[in-house]
Write a structure and sequence with these properties.
Blueprint (H helix, E strand, L loop, with lengths): L7 E6 L26 E9 L23 E4 L1 E3 L36 E7 L3 E7 L7 E6 L2 E6 L5 E7 L4 E7 L5 E7 L7 E8 L4 E7 L9 E2 L7 H5 L5 E5 L8 E8 L8 E10 L8 E9 L5 E9 L9 E5 L5 E3 L3
Parallel strand pairs: 2-19
Antiparallel strand pairs: 1-2, 3-5, 4-11, 5-6, 6-9, 7-8, 7-10, 10-11, 12-16, 12-18, 13-14, 13-17, 15-16, 17-20, 17-21, 18-19
């Protein structure tokens, strides 16, 4: 059963006006980074569950229940620390009363293990990154691209392959490892000119979720794109619908995570709108906290609009409820082609 609650809402907007609605519902069936040159528009959302603010009437809100590759674009440039020469005791050294200095093993982790990354363009304006750091197996790696940041884990061979939605036609990607090493690569992605993209990203245990309702679709239908129904770039290439990309390893406690929604706005086969919203689940780990997230949105001019958000969470008696932020990103208005 879904329970509707009214909550007092105070919203402070700096530099931009954003329509934000909060919906709390319960449903037993529902399962530092590189800085962008784009100015950040700060939107602070303040939630007051016991003050004198006016109640937000949620009766009119629809309740939801959860329920051909391109050429190689560029080679990565290895970033490696200088080799440390080994110090060894020569066998013919004169004996003394003191014990000989221990033999130190050569440091091969720098000279023989360069960190490299390559990029290949893929359908849907995606870029496939292949990172190799053979002397750092199972280590964390953080990827950076146009203000978007996400953290993954290398496999037992110190390698990882990840498909990333490009946010610029001339796309540059950076991989950073905890020891200071890293790699950089680039790719040209002309197909991005036919797409719109919206990014939601956060760090740590946030419980954020992006939802896209295409052409007035209801929740849990084919037109509802979210982590439970991501769709694929193939539909976007045919102009039939969008898709969602999930980035980052959510098994890490301090991971950077991102969700990227893509829609082929320039090749859409029908006119209409895509309604975007962000949902936050209240959990034992985030109740009473102030959660932070960032949204990025591409535009036809190539500029990336960036917006920072702070979401104060309700008390732990609301665990299992959801907050829905309406229109934290611009809805997509589509013309038929």
């Amino acid at each position: 059963m879904i329970i509707i609650r009214k909550i007092a809402l105070a919203t402070a907007v700096v530099s931009t006006a954003v329509a934000v609605g909060f919906l709390m519902q319960r449903d037993a069936d529902r399962s530092a980074p590189l800085q962008s040159a784009t100015p950040v528009e700060e939107t602070v959302l303040s939630l007051d569950t016991g003050g004198d603010g006016a109640d937000l009437d949620l009766q009119d809100i629809i309740l939801t229940s959860a329920s051909d590759p391109g050429p190689l674009a560029g080679k990565g440039r290895a970033v490696a620390a200088p080799t440390v020469a080994p110090r060894m005791t020569h066998p013919s050294a004169e004996r003394s009363d003191t014990a000989p200095a221990p033999i130190e093993a050569p440091d091969v982790s720098r000279a023989d293990c360069p960190v490299t990354m390559e990029a290949v363009t893929r359908p849907g304006a995606m870029v496939r990154l292949d990172l190799h750091a053979p002397c750092q197996p199972l280590d964390r790696v953080t990827f950076h691209h146009e203000g978007m940041t996400f953290t993954e884990v290398l496999d037992a061979n110190g390698a990882i392959r990840v498909d990333v939605p490009a946010l610029q036609v001339d796309a540059v990607f950076i991989a950073a490892l905890p020891n200071g090493e890293g790699a950089i690569t680039a790719a040209e992605v002309p197909a991005l000119k036919f797409l719109d993209r919206a990014v939601l990203q956060w760090s740590g245990i946030g419980g954020f979720e992006m939802h896209a309702l295409e052409y007035g679709a209801d929740f849990n239908t084919d037109g509802h794109i979210w982590s439970g129904h991501t769709a694929s770039p193939g539909a976007a290439e045919r102009g039939r619908g969008g898709f969602l990309t999930l980035l980052g390893d959510d098994a890490l406690l301090t991971s950077n995570l991102a969700q990227v929604y893509t829609y082929p706005s320039a090749t859409a086969r029908a006119a209409g709108e895509v309604d975007l919203s962000i949902e936050v689940e209240v959990t034992r780990t985030n109740c009473t906290d102030v959660l932070k997230a960032t949204s990025l949105q591409t535009s036809p001019t190539g500029k990336i609009v960036k917006q920072a958000m702070q979401v104060p969470m309700p008390g732990c008696d609301a665990v299992g409820d959801f907050l829905v932020l309406n229109n934290p990103a611009n809805d997509l208005k589509l013309a038929s082609n």
